[in-house]
Amino acid sequence: MAEDIQIPNFVASQSWVLRFKKKMNIVSRKVTKFVTRSYDDERVDLKVKPDEFLALEAKPYLENRGMAAFGNSDQSGFLRELHSGRSLTFRGERHVPGRIQSQNAMTHSYTIQSTITCDGRMFPQMLLCLQEVGGKFGPQVEKIMFDAPNIHAMASSSGKLTKAHVLSWFEKDYFPFAEKDSTILLDSRSGQKDQEAIDKLIPAGKTLRLLTIPAGATSMIQPCDVYLFRIWKSGVRKFEDRGMLDDLPVIFHQRDNIIELQSIMHNQFCSPRFKPQIQYAFYKAGYHDERPAKFQTMTEYCFDSVSLVEECYYCQRFYFMRCGWCTRALCFDCCWNGYENAGYHFCEDFVE
């Protein structure tokens, strides 16, 4: 370094190096990733590509077609059992075990694919892909499987979506709810880029413009990735952690309970109360410049806004959550099974 700034015969003492490191806030850290010399150039390119995509492709379509017709859909994987990675314990404890229902469920996953629009709506139905032996539901399972009105359930051997699943999502979960002339943002997964196969599914009288987010840029400009799924997974953890805390007789990694849990979460996200939350996802990803007014997220309103002394609306037991539609406080049992086992809480009665 001394040669670079043309200071000949300079020799740094140990104390000089220590003072320099302290002044410049330089510390020793563990290397988290090994890269080649081209890494800095790739980082610059990764910054330019999203900016060009937003300015030249996405924003013009958003301006021409309007916020209601401009959407984003993404896949997100969930462990079959999902819990918080933190717990309260005494200072100095070296080992902090967390109780779960199944070790196997902590290493296996399923996938959801939901759709949001720039004006703050979530489509009323989403795809849920479960991991099943042989990649499909058996005939007996299909007869008795939990039926949720907002869940399109499919299966694969890995719990991940294939091209066939994506095409089925377009046919059953996207086109029935999309605007007449719509634009959809998707990432660069190979199963989502077959324009010819997708075109065959477009209903008469509708058009679709498919925008593919540049590879490597989804964490920066994919609205679902940038903001939404973090809140979604937080809500799932609230359910499963409460089940473990109260030792409730609900096996969350079982097929029917996964469907019911994701149906409840999706139903809450669809509430008009959370439109600003979805609009903010597009704002944070850079698709428009108008920041939504201050809002509560789904987890803040449903799980953190209920008074400690508030009781369940139906049975007067301790509350668990507040419904984002009807505003009622619910205990876990009335949410999961319904009051007097009338069926789980699926609500569409909106109250300001």
Describe what this molecule looks like in 3D.
By secondary structure, this protein is α/β, with parallel strands linked by helices. The protein has eleven helices and eight strands. A six-stranded mixed sheet has the order 4-3-2-1-5-6, with helices on both faces. A two-stranded antiparallel ribbon has the order 7-8. The longest helix has 27 residues.
Oligomer: single chain
User: What structural category do the secondary elements indicate?
Assistant: alpha/beta
In percent terms, what proportion of residues is strand?
5-15%
Radius of gyration, in Å, reads 24 Å
Strand order of the largest sheet: 4-3-2-1-5-6
Number of strands: 8
Query: How far apart are the termini?
Result: 64 Å
Question: Segments where pLDDT lies below 50 for 5+ residues?
Answer: none
Classify the helix fraction into a percent range.
25-40%
Count the helices. How many? 11
Shape: globular
Largest sheet: 6 strands, mixed
Order of helices and strands: HHEEEHEHEHEHHHHHEEH
Q: Name the average pLDDT.
A: 91
